[in-house]
Amino acid sequence: MTLTQVAGLGDMRRSVASGRAWQALIGHHRKIADLSLSELFDEDPKRGERLCAEAAGFYLDYSKNRITDETLTLLTDLARSQGLSERIAAMFRGDTINTTENRAALHVALRAPVGTHIELDGRDVVAEVHDMLARMADFSEGVRTARLRGHAGAPLRNVINIGIGGSDLGPEMAYEALRHYSQRDMRFRFVSNVDATAFVEATRDLQASETLFIVCSKTFKTQETLENAQAARAWCVGQLGDEAAVASHFAAVSSNVPGAIEFGIAQDRVFGLWDWVGGRYSMDSAIGLSLMLAIGPAQFEEMLSGFRAMDEHFQNAPLPANLPVLMGLLAVWYADFFGAQTHAVLPYDQYLVHLPAYLQQLTMESNGKRVTQEGLEVDYATAPIIWGEVGTNGQHSFYQLLHQGTTLIPCDFIGFGQGLNPLGRHHDILMANLIAQTEALAFGKTEAELRAEGSPAALVPHRCLPGNRPSSTLLAQRLTPHTLGALVALYEHSVFTQGVIWNIDSFDQWGVETGKVLAQRTLPELESKPMPELHHDSSTNTLIRRYRALRDGAV
Ligand code: G6Q
Question: Is the pTM of this model over 0.85?
Answer without folding.
Answer: yes
